[in-house]
């Protein structure tokens, strides 16, 4: 769930954001639908230089009884404590870690690597994959695979790979990018960006080290229902949790 100004929004290639729903209502729905995990991003917190919407986060956490990963405006270890106290299970770092990589190490030492999720917004630039910051607004010039290696060394326990090239396009996950990352890291990978139908998830889970597929549009607009997707994954011999 990408949240801006207190509302869930969704765009294409990180642009053209449209209003979807109230985050607390949507969180309740996904909890009831059998989602395995919820990822909550306050997508303008870093760009606007403010803290994350803690009041909305508390409302979301009160409705969710599955793991909740939270990101947006995480710049100091004190931000970890703030969102964990609001009900988050894991903390996603992105722009704050790019500015100061030691944030990953500090968070891992205090709360454990299992709590630190390195979220990376990636777009192809020429023949490289670059890391973008501030909700995809700023090309950092960092080469994505090198940044992921560094994040793992500093203590991140999980990766969320957000492909800006496939985001919202609904033509499938960025399998080339995901394969390249899986070859250079031992961390579990959550794939994000591009899911358009159930087959896209089946294709995704043929890759090694992919622990989860993250999607927004197809679930927000009811194009794919989580219980139906899980049954199709099960039929394809992919292990899933059936509620």
TrEMBL record:
SUPFAM superfamilies: Ribulose-phoshate binding barrel. Its EC number is 4.3.2.10. Keywords: Amino-acid biosynthesis, Histidine biosynthesis, Lyase. Pathway: Amino-acid biosynthesis; L-histidine biosynthesis; L-histidine from 5-phospho-alpha-D-ribose 1-diphosphate: step 5/9. It holds the Pfam family His_biosynth. Heterodimer of HisH and HisF. Belongs to the HisA/HisF family. CDD domains: HisF. GO terms for molecular function: imidazoleglycerol-phosphate synthase activity; lyase activity. This is Imidazole glycerol phosphate synthase subunit HisF. GO terms for biological process: L-histidine biosynthetic process.
